[in-house]
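Morning run. Coffee first, then this:
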Amino acid sequence: MTYKANSLFQLDNARFMAALEQMGVSGDEASLSQLEKFVNILNKWNKVYNLTAIRDPAQMVTLHLLDSLAIQPYLEGVDVLDVGSGAGIPGIPLAVFNPEKNFTLLDSNSKKTRFIAQAAIELGLKNVKVVTSRVENFLPEKTFDTVVTRAFASIDKILLLTGKLYSENGTVLLMKGVVPEQELARLPENFNLKQVVRLAVPGLIGERHIISLSHCGRS
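And here it is:
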Protein backbone atom coordinates (compact mmCIF):
# COMPACT_ATOMS: atom_id res chain seq x y z
CA MET A 1 0.00 0.00 0.00
CA THR A 2 1.44 3.39 -0.93
CA TYR A 3 0.71 6.86 0.38
CA LYS A 4 2.42 10.20 -0.12
CA ALA A 5 1.77 13.26 1.99
CA ASN A 6 -0.64 15.76 0.45
CA SER A 7 -1.76 13.25 -2.19
CA LEU A 8 -4.59 10.79 -2.50
CA PHE A 9 -4.02 7.39 -1.01
CA GLN A 10 -3.50 4.62 -3.56
CA LEU A 11 -4.28 1.02 -2.73
CA ASP A 12 -1.71 -1.60 -3.73
CA ASN A 13 -4.19 -3.89 -5.46
CA ALA A 14 -1.86 -6.85 -5.83
CA ARG A 15 -0.94 -6.90 -2.14
CA PHE A 16 -4.53 -6.33 -1.09
CA MET A 17 -5.83 -9.15 -3.28
CA ALA A 18 -3.14 -11.44 -1.86
CA ALA A 19 -4.24 -10.51 1.68
CA LEU A 20 -7.87 -11.23 0.77
CA GLU A 21 -6.87 -14.62 -0.63
CA GLN A 22 -5.13 -15.47 2.65
CA MET A 23 -8.42 -14.75 4.46
CA GLY A 24 -10.52 -16.74 2.00
CA VAL A 25 -12.24 -13.66 0.60
CA SER A 26 -12.54 -12.80 -3.08
CA GLY A 27 -12.82 -9.35 -4.61
CA ASP A 28 -12.61 -7.59 -7.95
CA GLU A 29 -11.01 -4.41 -9.26
CA ALA A 30 -14.24 -2.42 -8.98
CA SER A 31 -14.62 -3.31 -5.29
CA LEU A 32 -11.00 -2.41 -4.60
CA SER A 33 -11.50 0.94 -6.30
CA GLN A 34 -14.44 1.66 -4.01
CA LEU A 35 -12.42 0.72 -0.94
CA GLU A 36 -9.60 3.01 -2.04
CA LYS A 37 -12.12 5.83 -2.41
CA PHE A 38 -13.57 5.06 1.01
CA VAL A 39 -10.14 5.38 2.65
CA ASN A 40 -9.64 8.76 0.97
CA ILE A 41 -13.07 9.99 2.06
CA LEU A 42 -12.46 8.78 5.61
CA ASN A 43 -9.01 10.35 5.72
CA LYS A 44 -10.42 13.69 4.55
CA TRP A 45 -13.28 13.76 7.06
CA ASN A 46 -11.07 12.45 9.86
CA LYS A 47 -8.89 15.55 9.76
CA VAL A 48 -11.88 17.66 10.80
CA TYR A 49 -14.29 15.37 12.63
CA ASN A 50 -11.97 12.88 14.42
CA LEU A 51 -13.94 9.82 13.33
CA THR A 52 -11.21 7.28 14.07
CA ALA A 53 -7.95 7.25 16.01
CA ILE A 54 -6.22 5.73 12.96
CA ARG A 55 -4.61 8.61 11.07
CA ASP A 56 -2.42 6.80 8.56
CA PRO A 57 -4.38 5.63 5.49
CA ALA A 58 -2.03 2.67 5.09
CA GLN A 59 -2.94 1.53 8.61
CA MET A 60 -6.62 1.98 7.76
CA VAL A 61 -6.17 -0.72 5.11
CA THR A 62 -5.22 -3.29 7.75
CA LEU A 63 -7.20 -2.09 10.76
CA HIS A 64 -10.39 -1.04 8.96
CA LEU A 65 -10.61 -2.74 5.55
CA LEU A 66 -9.00 -6.14 6.05
CA ASP A 67 -10.21 -6.45 9.64
CA SER A 68 -13.77 -5.83 8.41
CA LEU A 69 -13.62 -8.15 5.43
CA ALA A 70 -12.19 -10.99 7.53
CA ILE A 71 -15.71 -11.63 8.89
CA GLN A 72 -17.35 -11.82 5.45
CA PRO A 73 -17.41 -15.64 5.33
CA TYR A 74 -19.55 -15.68 8.48
CA LEU A 75 -22.36 -13.41 7.29
CA GLU A 76 -25.67 -15.20 6.88
CA GLY A 77 -28.93 -14.24 5.20
CA VAL A 78 -29.73 -11.04 3.35
CA ASP A 79 -30.41 -8.39 6.00
CA VAL A 80 -27.38 -7.36 8.08
CA LEU A 81 -27.21 -4.89 10.97
CA ASP A 82 -23.91 -3.27 12.01
CA VAL A 83 -24.36 -2.07 15.61
CA GLY A 84 -22.09 0.79 16.67
CA SER A 85 -20.80 1.27 13.15
CA GLY A 86 -18.71 4.33 14.03
CA ALA A 87 -16.92 5.39 10.85
CA GLY A 88 -18.75 2.71 8.86
CA ILE A 89 -16.64 -0.16 10.11
CA PRO A 90 -17.21 -3.00 9.32
CA GLY A 91 -20.44 -2.11 7.48
CA ILE A 92 -19.12 -0.09 4.55
CA PRO A 93 -16.38 -2.53 3.42
CA LEU A 94 -18.82 -5.43 3.80
CA ALA A 95 -21.49 -3.59 1.80
CA VAL A 96 -18.99 -2.94 -0.99
CA PHE A 97 -18.13 -6.64 -1.22
CA ASN A 98 -21.71 -7.90 -0.78
CA PRO A 99 -24.01 -5.86 -3.05
CA GLU A 100 -26.66 -8.59 -2.84
CA LYS A 101 -27.13 -8.02 0.90
CA ASN A 102 -28.87 -5.15 2.67
CA PHE A 103 -26.85 -3.38 5.37
CA THR A 104 -28.21 -1.15 8.12
CA LEU A 105 -25.48 0.83 9.88
CA LEU A 106 -26.49 1.99 13.36
CA ASP A 107 -24.72 4.51 15.57
CA SER A 108 -25.85 7.04 18.16
CA ASN A 109 -23.25 9.65 17.14
CA SER A 110 -24.83 11.92 14.52
CA LYS A 111 -21.42 13.20 13.39
CA LYS A 112 -20.43 9.66 12.49
CA THR A 113 -23.72 8.74 10.85
CA ARG A 114 -23.53 11.88 8.70
CA PHE A 115 -20.14 10.70 7.51
CA ILE A 116 -21.41 7.17 6.83
CA ALA A 117 -24.36 8.51 4.84
CA GLN A 118 -22.12 10.77 2.76
CA ALA A 119 -19.61 7.97 2.15
CA ALA A 120 -22.41 5.65 1.00
CA ILE A 121 -23.61 8.33 -1.44
CA GLU A 122 -20.13 8.97 -2.84
CA LEU A 123 -19.49 5.25 -3.21
CA GLY A 124 -22.87 4.69 -4.86
CA LEU A 125 -23.91 2.06 -2.31
CA LYS A 126 -27.60 1.37 -2.80
CA ASN A 127 -27.57 -1.41 -0.21
CA VAL A 128 -26.75 0.78 2.81
CA LYS A 129 -29.22 2.37 5.22
CA VAL A 130 -27.91 4.63 7.98
CA VAL A 131 -29.70 5.06 11.31
CA THR A 132 -28.84 7.47 14.13
CA SER A 133 -30.01 5.88 17.37
CA ARG A 134 -28.91 4.16 20.52
CA VAL A 135 -29.29 0.43 20.05
CA GLU A 136 -31.78 0.08 22.91
CA ASN A 137 -34.04 2.68 21.26
CA PHE A 138 -33.84 1.29 17.73
CA LEU A 139 -37.17 -0.10 16.51
CA PRO A 140 -36.66 -1.53 13.00
CA GLU A 141 -39.51 -2.45 10.70
CA LYS A 142 -38.15 -5.99 10.50
CA THR A 143 -35.55 -8.10 12.23
CA PHE A 144 -32.13 -9.04 10.86
CA ASP A 145 -30.55 -12.27 9.66
CA THR A 146 -27.11 -11.24 10.94
CA VAL A 147 -26.21 -8.69 13.60
CA VAL A 148 -22.55 -7.65 13.71
CA THR A 149 -20.86 -5.66 16.41
CA ARG A 150 -17.43 -4.93 17.72
CA ALA A 151 -17.81 -6.04 21.32
CA PHE A 152 -18.54 -2.77 23.13
CA ALA A 153 -19.64 -4.44 26.39
CA SER A 154 -19.90 -7.87 27.98
CA ILE A 155 -21.56 -10.47 25.77
CA ASP A 156 -24.62 -10.85 27.98
CA LYS A 157 -25.18 -7.09 27.97
CA ILE A 158 -24.78 -6.89 24.19
CA LEU A 159 -27.34 -9.67 23.73
CA LEU A 160 -29.73 -7.98 26.15
CA LEU A 161 -29.50 -4.66 24.28
CA THR A 162 -29.84 -6.23 20.83
CA GLY A 163 -32.24 -9.08 21.67
CA LYS A 164 -35.23 -7.65 19.80
CA LEU A 165 -33.26 -7.22 16.57
CA TYR A 166 -32.65 -10.84 15.56
CA SER A 167 -34.69 -12.95 13.22
CA GLU A 168 -35.66 -16.40 14.46
CA ASN A 169 -32.45 -18.45 14.10
CA GLY A 170 -30.59 -15.22 13.31
CA THR A 171 -26.81 -15.00 13.65
CA VAL A 172 -24.88 -12.79 16.04
CA LEU A 173 -21.27 -11.99 15.08
CA LEU A 174 -19.14 -10.52 17.86
CA MET A 175 -15.75 -9.10 16.86
CA LYS A 176 -13.37 -9.69 19.76
CA GLY A 177 -9.68 -9.69 20.56
CA VAL A 178 -9.03 -12.34 23.19
CA VAL A 179 -11.76 -14.97 23.63
CA PRO A 180 -13.88 -14.11 26.72
CA GLU A 181 -14.25 -17.64 28.05
CA GLN A 182 -16.11 -16.65 31.22
CA GLU A 183 -18.65 -14.58 29.28
CA LEU A 184 -19.30 -17.43 26.86
CA ALA A 185 -19.91 -19.77 29.80
CA ARG A 186 -22.94 -17.72 30.86
CA LEU A 187 -24.76 -17.19 27.57
CA PRO A 188 -28.52 -16.60 27.83
CA GLU A 189 -30.60 -19.73 27.23
CA ASN A 190 -31.99 -18.41 23.95
CA PHE A 191 -28.53 -18.16 22.33
CA ASN A 192 -26.31 -21.03 21.20
CA LEU A 193 -22.59 -20.82 20.53
CA LYS A 194 -21.99 -21.82 16.91
CA GLN A 195 -18.25 -21.28 16.63
CA VAL A 196 -15.27 -19.24 17.78
CA VAL A 197 -12.75 -18.61 15.01
CA ARG A 198 -9.36 -16.97 15.29
CA LEU A 199 -9.00 -14.59 12.37
CA ALA A 200 -5.67 -14.30 10.60
CA VAL A 201 -5.68 -10.73 9.31
CA PRO A 202 -2.49 -10.04 7.32
CA GLY A 203 -0.41 -7.29 8.91
CA LEU A 204 -2.48 -7.14 12.09
CA ILE A 205 -0.66 -7.51 15.41
CA GLY A 206 -2.58 -9.08 18.25
CA GLU A 207 -5.42 -11.57 18.50
CA ARG A 208 -8.66 -11.28 16.54
CA HIS A 209 -11.60 -13.62 16.94
CA ILE A 210 -15.10 -13.81 15.55
CA ILE A 211 -17.67 -15.31 17.90
CA SER A 212 -20.74 -16.63 16.10
CA LEU A 213 -23.95 -17.20 18.04
CA SER A 214 -27.36 -18.34 16.91
CA HIS A 215 -30.58 -16.85 18.23
CA CYS A 216 -32.93 -19.70 19.02
CA GLY A 217 -36.09 -17.96 20.20
CA ARG A 218 -37.48 -15.16 22.27
CA SER A 219 -36.51 -14.91 25.91
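The CA atoms of residues 87 and 115 lie 7 Å apart. Good start to the day.
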